[in-house]
Amino acid sequence: MNRKFEITDAKRGAAFTVRVVTRAQKNEIVGIQEDKSLKIRLTASPNDGQANDALIKFLAERLEVPENAIEIVAGRDSRDKWISVSGISTADLEDKLRPDPGATDS
Questions:
Q1: In a domain, 2, yes or no
Q2: Which of 23, 61, 72, 85 is 20 to 30 A from 44 via CA?
Q3: Cα–Cα distances in Å, from 83 out to 9, 13, 102, 104?
Q4: What is the pTM of this model?
């Protein structure tokens, strides 16, 4: 996926790209990568859609929206994903997707 990190404002919400790292020590937002995707670490395994489910749950909690407001539009079988979130503005999304304190890209 060669999309740049840019939060796209839509009539009903916003969309952005993420790069997921699975089997991490903890769930956390690391930050924006060189390719402009948002790097997120998850403790879940990529097997049987576990990481996708964990990503949706993590983002729902972080963004304070219901899980059914989040959709993986593209990349369900990839670590690079295009995410759509209903019912949130780009400003709120940007504010709530800040890197976690102490998270480093290593």
A1: no
A2: 85
A3: 12, 11, 25, 22
A4: 0.86
DSSP string across 24-56: -SS-EEEEE-TTSPEEEE-SS-SGGGHHHHHHH
* Best CA proximity match to 8, nearest among 68, 98, 76, 91: 91
Per-residue pLDDT of the chain (106 residues; tens, 9 = 90+): 444 455 656 557 888 999 999 999 999 999 988 888 999 999 999 998 999 999 999 999 999 999 999 999 999 999 999 999 998 888 888 889 888 887 777 6
Domain harbouring 14, CATH code:
3.30.1200.10
